Amino acid sequence: CIVRHYKFNVVMKNTTRLCATKPIVTINGKFPGPTLYAREGDTVLVKVVNHVKYNVSIHWHGIRQLQTGWADGPAYITQCPIQPGQNYIYNFTITGQRGTLLWHAHILWLRATVYGAIVVLPKRGVPYPFPKPHKEVVMILGEWWKSDVEAVINEATKSGFAPNVSDAHTINGYPGPLSSCSSKSSSKDGYTLKVKAGKTYMLRIINAALNEELFFKIAKHRLTVVEVDATYVKPFKTNTIVISPGQTTNVLLTADRTLGNYLVSVSPFMDSPIAVDNITATATVHYSGTLTTSPTTLITHPPQNATPVATNFTDALRSLNSKLYPANVPLTVDHSLLFTVSLGINPCLTCPNGNKVVADINNVSFVMPTTALLQAHFFNISGVFTDDFPGNPPVAFNYTGAPPTSLQTTNGTRLYRLSYNSTVQVVLQDTGIIAPENHPIHLHGFNFFVVGTGLGNYNPKKDPKKFNLVDPVERNTVGVPTGGWTAIRFRADNPGVWFMHCHLEVHTTWGLKMAFVVDNGKGPNESLLPPPRDLPTC
Ligand code: C2O
Question: Which family does it belong to (predicted)?
Answer without folding.
Answer: Belongs to the multicopper oxidase family.
